[in-house]
Design goal:
- By secondary structure, the protein is α/β, with parallel strands linked by helices.
- Helices cover about 25% and strands about 35% of the residues.
- It is built from four helices and nine strands; from the N terminus they run αβαβαβββαββββ.
- The longest helix is centred in the N-terminal third of the chain and has 18 residues.
- The two termini are about 15 Å apart.
- The structure holds inosinic acid (IMP) and magnesium ion (MG).
């Protein structure tokens, strides 16, 4: 896995370039800044996948905001969500004082995020929205729609810009289709 030739040969093609990501983030950052002007804003992302997106989107937001990270694991029975989320690292903010935006890397089946939303809603935030970098609607198993989705993609396995395959490729600056076979 640490071999550079193997690293490159599994990358099928670039789906979304660095410039395309940058342009869309500037647009959404401006939209968030307008919408949350004068409001206590907390951006929350779930590690690790969204760390790159979070770093870029928070710098495109021009109004004051706090940043929070969580680590969570979900457990499922078959195809339905058990709703059991185990938090391995929690936020240090009391979210009842904030308008919260979950900054997510990708919504695939939607199960992880659906559990996180339940958990955060129970903490009574002033409002709760979801901004996702990528959306794979064809794969959805639960009824969940992001408030903002930067890019909608087909059912491809993708890597780069925070997304991994077995923990590798997160550092690529673009999003690429990956040959997972
Ligand atoms: P869920 O199926 O919506 O619960 O997705 C859970 C997590 O799986 C996402 O937050 C990603 O971290 C990961 N994931 C889903 N699809 C992909 C992909 O195409 N590439 C890399 N990670 C993925
Ligand atoms: Mg994720």
């Amino acid at each position: 896995m640490c071999d550079t030739e193997e690293f490159d040969s599994k990358i099928k093609r670039v789906l979304i370039t660095e410039d395309e990501i940058k342009a869309k983030i500037a647009e959404v950052g401006a939209q968030i800044s307008r919408e949350y002007e004068g409001k206590p804003l907390l951006l929350v992302s779930i590690l690790k996948g969204a760390f790159v997106f979070m770093a870029d989107i928070c710098r495109a937001v021009t109004v004051p905001c706090e940043i929070g990270f969580m680590c969570a694991k979900s457990y499922y029975n078959g195809t339905s969500s058990s709703g059991i989320v185990k938090i391995t690292m929690d936020l240090d903010q009391d979210i009842s004082k904030f308008h919260v935006i979950i900054v997510e890397d990708i919504i695939d089946t939607g199960r992880t995020l659906s559990d996180i939303i339940k958990l955060l809603k129970a903490r009574d935030p002033l409002s709760l929205k979801v901004v996702t970098l990528l959306d794979k609607p064809d794969r959805r198993l639960v009824d969940l729609k992001a408030d903002v989705s930067l890019f909608t993609i087909p059912d491809y396995f993708v890597i780069g810009y925070g997304l991994d395959c077995a923990e590798i490729y997160r550092n690529l600056p673009y999003i690429a289709e990956y040959d997972a076979d």
